[in-house]
Design goal:
By secondary structure, the chain is α/β, with parallel strands linked by helices. It has helices at residues 27-42, 63-66, 103-108, 123-126, 142-155, 172-186, 191-200, 218-228, 250-255, 272-295, 301-305, 308-322, 332-346, 355-358, 362-381, 386-398, 425-434, 437-445, 448-451, 461-475, 477-486, and strands at 18-23, 49-54, 71-79, 82-90, 93-98, 117-120, 162-165, 202-203, 206-209, 236-238, 243-247, 265-268, 403-405, 408-413, 416-419. Helices cover 47% and strands 15% of the residues.
Length: 488
């Protein structure tokens, strides 16, 4: 059987009013933010549901509607030294609307005074300024959609909202507000609306931290369905660890009352410490390692951590190059404790966290998460971060597309093709076709449009990356990792 309302132990929860508008249907939102709201509802704290906006039509019957907007969160991991398994049927989502075909319905939610919260996760790429009319049906970009929704709310004479973007961008709330104000100027919206935007709405910087790899495949999925007693096309695996840090005051706490249900939600005046730890030590390590681990033959994160040499490489990279380069003052003991937590999370035997999935928008992630570390490392030590350099070389090799088909670019590993899901794939495809290794490295590192800086100015970095990239092509990526560990 398929998951439906008959499986709910508290069916009354499906009648709760809508209080949240959510842009995005991804597993991170469902496995973390919506998890907190669902938990609060079950504890009688928040008592509100989520209207979800998806960017495209599915082309057929919608999976959410087929399942009464229910889905299962399977929590798997180590909790205080002991294995933990928990299966939760989430009823937090009330309905899912398509921006393409149901834009008028989405705008109509702006007139609902009960909806006071907007959350989003449109990836780092989604939080960018696109010069466009907000009167389109719908606007193309997320910020333009949000601006249109807020303008509709303003015209309805309602108070503003608490807006919490979760994209992994430093100061994501501030950035989103900046883009919304740019759109106001381009669309020549009235000053009274801009004043309302500034005084009635809270754009909160936030940080999300939970590994949510999504649904398993094949036999593992079948075994899970058999154990649950039903099928669920939206089933989501999530680790035990969870954090949603939100920058806000008592007013924000009043609106986001779901924070009371779980210590993983932290609403504080300053969340920089949480952001830097997560962005650099968890995400930064992931980004520097995903190409290297994948090209070394490891499919999942836990497989790489089970390999002695790879585990040593990851540990040294994190503790000796990433931590000292974090551009924020954090107590060493806090970094050490978080580092141990990160490695335990990487080792989680329950998660099938695919390295290839971490390579999504590889270049953008490298710029946002790692290049500030590289620049700060040189500022602090004025020397080459050896492990970082190998991670960057592996990134360049992963971005070597050997085939283009229908606008998609494919690399090759062990004779098999893999999809490069990065907006810079076409750029690298052309570079690899026309340049030798040394030329390619220098052109990439000197590209200020990619990195915001000329990285060839960093003493010895280009030469080091070139050497490692050449060695990776000659003897293999894992062999380069092994050679470094021998002398570590």
């Amino acid at each position: 059987m398929k998951i439906d309302k008959s499986l709910l132990t508290e069916p009354a929860l499906t009648q709760l009013p809508e209080k949240v508008l959510q842009f995005g249907t991804g597993v991170l939102l469902r496995g973390l933010c919506d998890y907190f709201i669902d938990k609060a509802n079950k504890e009688g704290i928040f008592n509100g549901r989520i209207v979800v906006v998806k960017s495209t039509d599915s082309g057929g019957a919608d999976t959410f509607a087929e399942q009464d907007n229910l889905y299962t969160i399977c929590v798997r991991g180590i909790d205080k030294g002991a294995p933990k398994e928990e299966n939760i049927i989430s009823s937090a989502i009330s309905r899912v609307l398509s921006a393409q075909s149901q834009w008028s319905d989405i705008l109509a939610t702006a007139k609902d005074p009960a909806i006071e919260i907007v959350i989003s996760n449109t990836t780092e790429v989604g939080l960018q300024y696109v010069e466009e009319s907000i009167l389109q049906t719908p606007p193309a970009s997320f910020p333009a959609k949000l601006t249109a929704w807020l303008y509709e709310r303003f015209q309805a004479g309602l108070p503003g909202a608490v807006i919490v973007p979760t994209e992994l961008i430093v100061g994501n709330g501030d950035k989103l507000k900046e883009i919304v104000l740019q759109l106001c100027a381009f669309n020549q919206l009235p000053e009274v609306f801009i004043e309302w935007l500034n005084t009635e709405n809270r754009f909160c910087n936030s940080l999300v931290d939970r590994i949510v790899p999504g649904k398993p495949k094949g036999e593992k999925l079948k075994e899970l369905f058999d154990k649950l007693g039903y099928e669920d096309d939206l089933l989501t695996i999530a680790e035990v660890y969870r954090l949603w840090a939100i920058e806000g005051d008592d007013k924000v706490k009043d609106v986001l009352s779901f924070y009371e249900a779980d210590p993983g939600v932290k609403i504080e005046k300053n969340i920089e410490q949480y952001r830097e730890l997560k962005l650099r030590m968890l995400n930064g390590t992931h980004t520097l390692m995903c190409g290297m681990a994948y090209l070394s033959g490891f499919e999942t994160v836990k497989e790489a951590l089970a390999d002695e040499l790879m585990e040593k490489f990851i540990t040294i990279l994190m503790t000796t190059e990433i931590v000292p380069a974090i551009p924020y003052k954090i107590e060493p003991k806090v970094c050490q404790r978080y580092g141990r937590e990160v490695l335990d999370r990487f080792r989680n035997p329950y998660l099938e966290h695919q390295w290839i999935s971490i390579t999504l928008q590889y270049t953008m992630k490298m710029r946002m998460r790692n290049i500030p570390l590289l620049l700060n490392y040189y500022k602090e030590f004025n020397t080459i971060p050896q492990y970082f350099a190998r991670g960057f070389a592996a990134y360049l090799l992963f971005m070597k597309a050997i085939k283009e088909e229908n606008g998609k670019y494919y690399g090759q590993k062990d004779g098999e093709l893999y999809l490069i899901q990065c907006d810079s794939a076409a750029y690298f495809y052309k570079l690899w076709q026309k340049n030798a290794t040394e030329q390619l490295v220098n052109k990439v590192l000197s590209n200020k449009a990619l990195w915001g800086s000329d990285l060839t100015k960093l003493r010895g970095f280009a030469e080091n990356v070139t050497t490692h990239l050449s060695n990776m092509q000659m003897i293999g990526v894992k062999e380069v990792v092994s050679a470094l560990n021998v002398y570590a």
